[in-house]
Amino acid sequence: MLAPLAGIADSPYRLIAKRFGAALVYTEMISAEGLLRGNTRTLRLFYFNPEERPIGVQIFGSDPEKTASACQLINKLKPDLIDLNFGCPVKKVVKKNGGAALLKDLDLLKKIVSAVTRSAEFPVTVKIRSGWDQNNLVAVQVAKIAEECGASAITVHPRTRKDGFSKRADWNITACVKKKVNIPVIGSGDVLSPQDAKNMLDRTGCDAVMIGRGSIGNPWIFSHTNHFLKCGELLPEPSLEEKIETCFKHAQLLVKEKGELTGIRSMRKHLLFYTKGIPRSKELRQRLFSLETLEQVKQAFCEYLLHIKNVNCPIHLPPIN
């Protein structure tokens, strides 16, 4: 399943992930208070396309009543589940006592989970880190609280807030959580290949695998992982034409949602990853970063392929709608 990547996993990104086999996707993390205030930017994060189902809406908050009230608004959108974030390490979230900060106040965390499970008309899941720091590893304790309060599943990212993303994820913590609760456990952290996903499942006993950074510019990781888990064989890496076709389709979806100029500019952060490792990638990126229309992007890709592979503009490129 696709992780709720802040600043990355918008609706076009989720659609791409679904088309490549992600079993479940999540919205980007949404502030409960921002939702209640009707903040425009927050409401944009709230949107999802029916094609993205099954989808979870992820929220964070530090006030049980407000978070439950936000949940009642989410009920109207009829997602497939609601996910509570107790793992975000970002300073502006932690300063408001949200995200990973709740791992230091388990009484308040319990009140939030209880309030939301009472208000939600859909299953509630919880996403956590292993603790605030290495001296306060509370993953098992939080998982038990979540289960007691009615959560339907828990996602464990086994790094502490202090670790950020600098240390290897400690999958042993995920394995400990799996042994101590009866609800499904979703493993997260350092899954960058199909082999990583299988290793996580084998080592932790978790019920599903969540992929975040490993999917950026690489949506094939979902289809390749599903195939590897089912058949035990690795599919070949996508061809240069396949990478460019998917990258262009991603740009089309962004333009459809955000308008041409904003959509093309939003695509730039993804281009870094889609073009990683391909021939003359630096030159291609430099050109793409200066463009502002889909037609210009298509022309740049066609000329690039003509230069690199001496082929005419490939018919694989989807038409511009």
Summarize the structure.
With 321 residues, the protein is α/β, with parallel strands linked by helices.
Span of the ends, CA to CA: 29 Å
Name the CATH superfamily classification of the largest domain. Answer: Aldolase class I
Count of the separate structural domains: 2
CATH architecture label name of the largest domain: Alpha-Beta Barrel
Describe this structure in words.
With 321 residues, this protein is of the alpha/beta class. The protein has 2 domains: 11-231, TIM Barrel (Alpha-Beta Barrel); 240-309, Putative flavin oxidoreducatase, domain 2 (Non-ribosomal Peptide Synthetase Peptidyl Carrier Protein, Chain A, Orthogonal Bundle), CATH 1.10.1200. Helix content is 48%, strand content 12%. It contains 14 helices and 8 strands. Strands 1, 2, 3, 4, 5, 6, 7 and 8 form an 8-stranded parallel sheet that branches. The longest helix is centred in the C-terminal third of the chain and has 19 residues, at 240-258. The model has no long low-confidence stretch (mean pLDDT 92).
List keywords for this structure.
321 residues; alpha/beta; TIM Barrel; Non-ribosomal Peptide Synthetase Peptidyl Carrier Protein, Chain A; 2 domains; 8-stranded parallel sheet; 14 helices; 48% helix
Task: Give the helices and strands, then pairings.
Blueprint: H1 11-19, E1 25-26, E2 30-31, H2 32-37, H3 40-46, E3 55-60, H4 64-77, E4 81-86, H5 91-94, H6 106-119, E5 124-131, H7 139-148, E6 153-160, H8 171-180, E7 185-188, H9 194-204, E8 208-210, H10 220-231, H11 240-258, H12 260-274, H13 281-288, H14 294-309
Parallel strand pairs: 1-3, 2-3, 3-4, 4-5, 5-6, 6-7, 7-8
